[in-house]
């Protein structure tokens, strides 16, 4: 599925092959839920120290209408400059979410528009296979432990 990286260039998640990654779906105008989850991810990354450099940290928006590459750059950069952020055509984002087991449903309209979805963290190995799903309640230490395990097992 072709996406748009925060730099504005077209990419596919398969372009990340060879290195495992953590995948998180959210959107930049998500008031508390996404911000909390992004903090949890950033803290897990810090807890990993140098081992974090052997992972990619990926944010994919559920809201391509509002989340432009510039907005995503600002958003993910507020948590960690090494995070990758993606937007893209709505159909492509929906296909990626569905392939990851995420069914997002738009709610509200205008400034109060949002999404309902099963918030979680998805760990993908270097071959692009989904290996672990952690639910929304996962803590930074739990994510860091799952990343360490993935790095031991990942091709």
Task: Tell me what you see in this structure.
The protein has helices spanning about 35-50, 70-75, 90-100, 140-155, and strands at about 1-5, 10, 20-25, 55-60, 85, 105, 115, 120-125, 130-135. The radius of gyration is 14 Å and the shape is globular. It is of the alpha+beta class and about 160 residues long. The model has no long low-confidence stretch (mean pLDDT about 90). The longest helix has 16 residues, at about 35-50. The strands form 2 sheets. Strands 2-1-5-4-3-8-9 form a 7-stranded mixed sheet.
Which helices and strands occur, and which strands form pairs?
Blueprint: E1 2-5, E2 10-12, E3 21-26, H1 33-48, E4 56-61, H2 69-77, E5 84-87, H3 90-99, E6 105-107, E7 114-116, E8 120-124, E9 130-135, H4 140-153
Parallel strand pairs: 3-4, 4-5
Antiparallel strand pairs: 1-2, 1-5, 3-8, 6-7, 8-9
Helix pairs in contact: 1-4
